[in-house]
């Protein structure tokens, strides 16, 4: 069985119908699972701030791209670093995942790239073997770049065993792993009416 869904301007319906003529017979979808062109081509630059090192520790700040072409409200939910130590993935509560590069000893040029969106309140994120796993309110999603262009093409349901109810306070927080590769996170529970 094949199901095809299209959504767009009415004037482009014929173009969408013509594109279906190349769809493989018999359900062979391999040709359509290689990843597509980038949707978010813009990269944004910010400059970080180095913390003072005259105390026991310094806190450096990575300045976020609050003004961006997508109107994305940048309320960070989680972050983790890639193995090279110069890049990190950052999720925001609105549903985006961004990759920031240029994390070095000066923080002069941070480059931000939106790589995924549409995740349900992503408040946990873990990078395992340079693979991004993001914890939304509904599931752990593995983000897969099928064609190596730096943008996520496939949002794989890694685990959705957690129940989701109507309660606003039922957030899922902080994705971690142990030495055996097990994933852990905290899940908020319903709050009694009235608090």
What's this entry about, in short?
By secondary structure, the protein is mostly beta strands.
Question: What features would you describe in this structure?
Answer:
The protein is built from one helix and eleven strands; from the N terminus they run H-E-E-E-E-E-E-E-E-E-E-E. It has 195 residues and is mainly beta. The chain is globular.
Strand order, largest beta sheet? 1-5-4-3-2
Largest sheet: 5 strands, antiparallel
Radius of gyration: 20 Å
Q: What is the string of helix and strand elements? A: HEEEEEEEEEEE
Shape: globular
Number of strands: 11
Estimated share of beta-strand residues: 25-35%
SS-based class: mainly beta
Summed over residues and divided by their number, the pLDDT gives a mean of 90
Kindly report how far apart the N and C termini lie.
48 Å
Helix content: under 10%
**Poorly predicted runs of 5 or more residues:** none
| Total of helices | 1
